[in-house]
Amino acid sequence: MKITEESMRQQKHPQPPAPKPEPEPKRSELEKLKAMCWKDRAWYIWNYYKVHMALVVVAVLILQVVITSIYRGTFDTVLYCMVINSRSEEEINLSTLQEDFPAWQNLGKKELVNAESVYITYGDNASELSYATLAKISALVFSRDLDIMIGDKETISHFAALNGYLDLEHSLSPELLPLVENRLFYVSGEDGAKRAYAVDISGTTFAADTHLGKEASLLAIVSNTARRDNTDALLRYILAP
Q1: Other CB atoms within 10 A of residue 225 CB
Q2: Do the Cβ atoms of 189 and 195 come closer than 8 Å?
């Protein structure tokens, strides 16, 4: 290395180091997002916050389930009806059971009438769906949740053979019996004896408004129902509105 006068002077009087540039002020997440275009903003949010968003969604769903469960717990089912094998040309109308009857009975807003329509095939023609539906009905009967069945002759006969229905001729009140005595449907029970296990409600305004099929217009009361006040009220509503 060649020693010069300039190099000697630099050693005696070294140049101060160049000042370091001041660091840029740290920007907040909001400022970062504002400085981005929409495409970059979407990419940034997805890559950095997708876990947080997933946790928020899960928390909201759990909260919704809890709130719904608590809210539903404040309702009381006062009648549960199942319409079976109604093969009408018109779509079945369950509002007669779920809206019109509760209004006629002056039920409260949190007193519910549950109603559904199902199809069942029996014997060798039974499908997997039929077996599942029969299992559901058995569970509802066992838990005393199901009160009324409206169905065809095959359905009434099937459950009557299992002692699934009340003998209406001997269980209805003297006030209600005259309304049904000309419509009673007799079928064999478990012991082979014929009893009045159902009422034929064909030709009624209720059957027409509900769009019941002509063959599925037999109403039976489940034998272990805990809601006799409302099952009998439904018969009055149908036969003496």
Answers
A1: 19
A2: yes
Strand partners, 81: 115, 148
Give CA–CA dist 61/55, Å, rounded.
10
Nearest to 136 by CA among 124, 125, 149: 149
> Collapsing DSSP states into helix, strand and coil, what is residue 57?
helix
Structure tokens at 99: 């809206």
Amino acid at 52: H
Strand ranges for the chain from DSSP E: 76-84, 111-118, 148-151, 184-188, 194-200, 218-221
The answer to whether residues 208 and 175 touch, using CB atoms and an 8 Å cutoff, is no
Q: What is the residue whose two structure tokens read 């007193």?
A: 111
- The CA-atom distances, in angstroms, between 22 and each of 19, 32, 87, 174 are 9, 19, 83, 99
Cα distances (Å, whole numbers) of residue 205 to 76, 177, 179, 208: 27, 19, 15, 5
Residue with the two structure tokens 């199901």: 146
**pTM for this entry:** 0.70
Per-residue pLDDT reduced to its tens digit, 119-173: 998 888 778 888 899 999 999 999 999 999 999 999 999 999 999 999 999 999 9
